[in-house]
Amino acid sequence: YDHTLQDAFSRVLHKLIDSLPYLEGLLNVFCSNTSCPKAFLFDIRSRLYVATDASPVDQATHNLCCDYLQMLNSFGPLYKSAFFSPTSVPYRATNPELTSTDGLSSLNGNTTPHSTAPPKPLNFPSASASLTPSHPGTTLTYHLVTPHLALLALLPTTVYDMRRGLVEWNVVWLREGVREIWEVEKERCEGDFITA
Prior knowledge:
Radius of gyration: 21 Å
Mean pLDDT: 78
Strand content: 15-25%
Number of strands: 5
Largest sheet: 5 strands, antiparallel
Low-confidence stretches: 85-115
Strand order of the largest sheet: 2-1-5-4-3
Helix content: 40-55%
Shape: globular
Order of helices and strands: HHEEHHEEEHH
Number of helices: 6
């Protein structure tokens, strides 16, 4: 089993994405700022790469990134943080804002307009793996960009170890750029839907 089918579907997907040059531009800036030889923006579920930087796609690197993403998808749910788990039902004695009817309805599982849950904080996990046997001196990093897209980048291990803050800052910058592109595309699609 190889990943040539995913690579072929990714190339078909590239023809359908209007904002592909902007995503590639963001990845090119990320690669130049972090000394990264290759970066991919992957769809998490399908493992298709949505965009990549300007350097040519090496089949071995693509296969490595697909396998790493599959491994993270398989084992990631096992390591969810307790911080992001649903909170328990509030106890009426410790929460004076709840009236007796609000307390009963929340215990029954019903929600009332008076009781609002705090907004769930966004969690953008990241992971890294040293590729010593196959690519000595290289680290493969994973950074969640949106709930459906992840950045996978090959970085020199020395750069990743010594300049991790710079890498993280560039990931935040890339995440903001992708979010802005997504909002513009969403507005454009909504505008097309209204005029049609």
